[in-house]
Design brief:
Length: 224
C-alpha cells in the first residue's frame, strides 16, 4: 500500500485531555498502530538528564536527540514499554521532571525537525493512531481523520492528581493546576509547532465525559 494511502487518525490536545488513554483504546479497537509522540520528547528529556545536560544548551540537546535510540516494545496485555538507549525507561518517562524537560526540549526547532521522520515511520498498514500536539498540523497534515481533545484545566489537574495518588506520589491539586497552566502556556506560545488544532480537526471537549463515551465518539468519525 503506498504510504499516503495508509489511514492516519491524529489525536492532538493538551496534557491531561485524555489523549493517551483514548488513543491507545481507539488504536486497539481499530487494530491500528499507535504513536505516542510525547514519549519521544520525554525520552530525549530522560536521556538528557542521564547525561546531565543543561536544558538551556540547545546544541547539546540537538546532539542528544540524534544520539538517543528510542524503542517501543509491546508486552502481553497491550502495555507498551519504552526503551531509551536500550534501558526500560517507561516509568521514568511519566514523571513530572521528564514532562517538564520534554516541554523545554520540544521548543527547539532542530529537535522537532530531527524527530519528524522518526514519527512518520510509524505510518504502517493497516493504519496509525498518532497522539501528540502537532500530529494533525505538522507531522501528518494529510491525515484523513483528525481530532482535537480538550478538557478544562481543573479537570485535567484532578485526573493527574488521581493518577499520581494511585502511584503513591504526594502532590497537591493546586500545584498540579499551576504546572498544567504553565505547560499549556509554554506549549501554545512556542514559535515552532505551537499547540493548536488543525483547521479540519473535530473538537471534542472531554470535561465530564467517561472514557467509553469519548472512545465511541472518536470511533464514529473514523470510516475505515
Ligand atoms: O503528551 P506528553 O505530556 O507526553 O508530552 C510531553 C511534552 O512533549 C509536552 O509538554 C509537549 C511536548 N510534545 C510536543 O511538543 N509535541 C508532540 N507531538 C508531543 C509532545
Amino acid at each position: 500500500m503506498p504510504e499516503q494511502a495508509i489511514p492516519v487518525l491524529t489525536i492532538d490536545g493538551p496534557s491531561g485531555s485524555g489523549k493517551g488513554t483514548i488513543s491507545r483504546q481507539v488504536a486497539a479497537r481499530l487494530g491500528w498502530h499507535y504513536l505516542d509522540s510525547g514519549a519521544l520528547y520525554r525520552a530525549i528529556g530522560v536521556a538528557a538528564g542521564w547525561a546531565d545536560l543543561d536544558l538551556d544548551d540547545a546544541g547539546a540537546l540537538v546532539r542528544c536527540t540524534f544520539d538517543t535510540e528510542i524503542g517501543f516494545r509491546e508486552v502481553p496485555g497491550g502495555d507498551l514499554r519504552v526503551l531509551v538507549n536500550g534501558h526500560d525507561a517507561t516509568d521514568e518517562l511519566r514523571t513530572e521532571t521528564a514532562g517538564a524537560a520534554a516541554s523545554a526540549i520540544a521548543a527547539i526547532p532542530e529537535v522537532r525537525a530531527a524527530l519528524k521522520d522518526r514519527q512518520r515511520a510509524f505510518r504502517r498498514a493497516p493504519g496509525l493512531v498518532a497522539d501528540g500536539r502537532d500530529m494533525g498540523t505538522v507531522i501528518f497534515p494529510d491525515a484523513p481523520f483528525k481530532v482535537f481533545l480538550t478538557a478544562s484545566a481543573g479537570e485535567r489537574a484532578e485526573r493527574r492528581y488521581k493518577q499520581l495518588k494511585d502511584k503513591g506520589v504526594s502532590v497537591t491539586i493546586d500545584g498540579l493546576l499551576r504546572e498544567i497552566l504553565a505547560r499549556d502556556a509554554r506549549d501554545a506560545s512556542r514559535t515552532v509547532a505551537p499547540l493548536r488544532p488543525a483547521e479540519d480537526a473535530v473538537h471534542i471537549d472531554t470535561t465530564g465525559l467517561g472514557i467509553d463515551a469519548v472512545v465511541a465518539r472518536v470511533l464514529s468519525i473514523v470510516t475505515p
